[in-house]
Design brief:
single chain; alpha+beta; 5 domains; six-stranded mixed β-sheet; 27% strand; elongated
């Protein structure tokens, strides 16, 4: 006899924990660590047959890799650490563009940040400091909130925590989700002095421990913050980079890829690298990304300048010269490692990852490249093999020097300020820390409105949001996506495009755009071009498509719209993106007006009598296949029925022949005729009508 939970799985019910993420998990087509059945039917942690976590309702897809994070933030009446929605959209977009394959043919990983439209769950009471239990110097801990306590009180939505089944819901969610908190800052560090010591504001950007992490950049935005970070766009980039950096730790990446010890490697083009965690470093506006290639090893005792780092075209890198960060250079070209004015030396001895301001570098290091996305692909399988509960320290990996990587303090405000003081991106003789417009030369530093942002540098900042209606959408009907692009910057945006690749399950019908947008593209690949957009103004694009009939009921359809600013940067640089999920509704056919023309067979003369079956079938889209089948409450050739066979024949989907006979010692015979209807998506329904052969003429 099967256990109730195992029987439920066989019947299409929820999946036990060990069959979802553990060593015993079933088939997992997309290799994301969640079994196919779990992503379709949900997770049941206590084996009672009740769904504790409905992954399909969270848009999990057994044919596309998924990662889930719940995001909370601290807030009170005077202060909020809530990240802008665009911050999190930037990270979602980076995962979507990942060079990772999936069974559905699309690339990338779907990062699900569960909350509302802005991807955050809820505000939690504000505390000035936050730390993990056991972290932070004892002398300076004071009233710091404990992350572990915050998690115990606020992990899960309010509705989930209030549910009578909360214990099992949160246990299931904890096996699937990472947990992140945006907070003000971490607890202070104790520094000894002649008077005994004092506490110093560490100002760390964030920290990860196991599967969970915090982003503590709010203190970076205070009076000590570099001026350019006061601009909203740069706050977004800083928070997006730090969120992705700490999530990388939670997924198993370190500051050197596989190494926690060697940081600031010029041949490691990743947001995990201090050189690229933030957008401004040495004059390089880096893309938000993990590394995509395992670049060749650099031996600091024998560097080749003509070879450089042998990196990808279109990317740039930075490196150390004399302990200071050097201006960015092309990653695919020669590099003047020793800063002697040429790039022809082939056996250079230079400490190129030594950046004093970032605390990086040791002479004579061997600097290994690393492919983050390939490692994450592998790590998802490792998580699945051990199971989330069996692997609570999923984010801790062995580094490439054979030591266990421990959690460590991250970039601090002191690191950032010191680094920016060493760079002058626009070469206007004002260092980037003090420059109120670091990308545009303005030696006079004019700032007429005293907002900390120079008059010379208002920039266009395009944001995009997307909705879909109706949702759920019925197959065979129309679905409309509404895309809104807003210029949140201080200068006109021109030109720019909106790009949308509609899901394969849709057929494009029409496009319309406000603001002079020109609809273009072909088939499901849509492109809308705009000449310009003034600050504070929005434009709207509406794409209408038909949802195909064969799409199975409950299928989540992901669709992403991207806005690209074509001036002031590379055309392929994504400005912003937003993804919306629509659930396909494909109800089974509806059968009505079922009847037979001969409800009673008499006399019981053993003859096959034709019976016409009438009915009406309606479906949201065809074609619908119908069929008839027959059963009886008496056996064929039963005792006293005349020993004739067969007792029925199905002639067509509207006609059967039934034998007019019944058991002599019985109470009468009942034929049950089942009408079944199946649509193009495999959805089916049935209705029954009956025909009787009474025991006698009096019935």
């Amino acid at each position: 006899v099967l256990h109730a939970a195992a029987q439920a799985e066989q019947d299409g019910g929820p999946v036990r924990l060990e069959r979802c993420v553990g060593r015993e998990r079933g088939p997992d087509r997309d290799d994301d660590g969640f079994s196919d059945l779990c992503e379709r039917n949900g997770l049941d942690v206590n084996g009672d047959g009740v769904v504790d976590l409905n992954l399909r309702a969270l848009n999990a897809d057994p044919d596309h890799k998924d990662v889930f994070v719940e995001v909370d933030f601290m807030q009170d009446n005077e202060h909020t650490d809530r990240p802008p929605a665009r911050t999190l959209r930037q990270v979602i977009g980076a995962f979507r563009r990942a060079p990772v394959t999936n069974p559905d043919g699309a690339r990338g990983i779907r990062l699900h940040l569960i909350g509302g439209d802005d991807r955050v769950d809820e505000a939690i009471p504000h505390r000035a400091e936050l730390r993990f239990r056991g972290f932070g110097d004892e002398q300076c801990r004071g009233g710091a909130a404990i992350f572990d306590d915050i998690r115990a009180d606020f992990f899960g939505t309010r509705a989930e925590r209030a549910n009578a089944n909360a214990r099992n819901i949160l246990r299931a969610k904890g096996a699937v989700f990472h947990y992140a908190v945006f907070a003000h800052r971490q607890s202070d560090r104790f520094v000894p002095d002649p008077n005994g010591g004092h506490c110093v504001d560490e100002g760390s950007s964030g920290l990860a421990l196991g599967r969970d992490f915090m982003v503590t950049l709010a203190s970076f935005r205070g009076g000590r913050t570099p001026r350019q970070w006061r601009a909203r766009a740069d706050r977004i980039q800083a928070e997006a980079g730090t969120f992705m950096h700490e999530l990388g730790h939670a997924l198993g990446l370190q500051h050197g890829g596989s190494s926690r010890i060697i940081n600031c490697k010029p041949n490691y083009l990743s947001v995990m690298n201090y050189l690229f965690q933030l957008r401004y470093n040495g004059g390089y506006r880096r893309p938000l990304d993990y590394s995509r290639q395992d670049l060749p090893t650099l031996n600091e005792g024998a560097l080749s300048e003509p070879r450089g780092i042998d990196g990808p075209a279109g990317r740039r890198t930075v490196y150390g010269v004399g302990g200071r960060i050097h201006r960015a250079v092309p990653a695919d070209g020669p590099i003047d490692w020793n800063n002697d004015g040429d790039s022809g030396d082939r056996d250079v001895d230079a400490n190129v990852n030594r950046i004093v301001s970032l605390g990086c570098g040791g002479r004579g290091d061997t600097l290994n490249g690393f492919d983050d996305w390939a490692e994450l692909d592998r790590r998802l399988l490792i998580r699945a093999a051990g199971g989330a509960e069996a692997d609570p320290d999923f984010g801790v990996v062995a580094d490439d020097e054979g030591e266990e990587a421990e959690d460590e303090q991250e970039l601090t405000i002191e690191n950032v300020e010191a680094t920016l003081r060493e760079t002058d991106e626009d070469a206007d003789a004002v260092n980037d820390n003090d420059d109120n417009c670091p990308e545009t030369p303005n030696p006079d530093q004019a700032d007429s409105d005293a907002d900390g942002i120079g008059d010379a540098c208002p920039a266009a900042v395009l944001s995009i949001t997307k909705t879909a209606a109706p949702n759920p959408a019925v197959t065979g009907s129309r679905l409309t996506y509404t895309i809104t692009v807003t210029n949140e910057g201080g200068a006109a945006a021109s030109p720019f495009v909106v790009v949308d690749e509609l899901p394969a399950q849709l057929t494009f019908l029409s496009c319309e755009a406000t603001g002079g947008g020109l609809c273009g593209g072909s088939d499901n690949s849509r492109l809308v071009s705009f000449d310009s957009l003034q600050p504070g103004v929005s434009v709207i694009v509406r794409l209408t498509a038909a949802l195909s009939c064969p799409v199975p009921d409950g299928t989540p359809l992901a669709n992403t719209a991207v806005v690209r600013l074509l001036s002031g940067g590379a055309e392929d640089e994504e400005e912003d993106s937003d993804t919306v999920f629509v659930t396909a509704s494909n109800p089974p056919p509806v059968i009505t007006n079922a009847a037979v023309d001969t409800p009673t067979l008499w006399p019981a003369n053993h003859k096959l009598i034709p019976v016409q079956v009438s009915y009406t079938v309606k479906d949201n889209c065809g074609p619908v296949t119908t069929a008839l089948s027959v059963t009886s409450n008496e056996p064929i050739n039963g005792t006293g029925d005349g020993d004739t066979a067969p007792d029925w024949e199905v002639v067509s989907n509207r006609l059967v022949r039934l034998r007019a006979e019944r058991a002599g010692g019985g109470a009468g015979r009942v034929y049950a005729i089942t009408i079944s209807a199946t649509d193009s998506a495999g959805q089916s329904s049935s209705r029954q009508v009956t025909v009787t052969v009474p025991k006698n003429q009096r019935k």
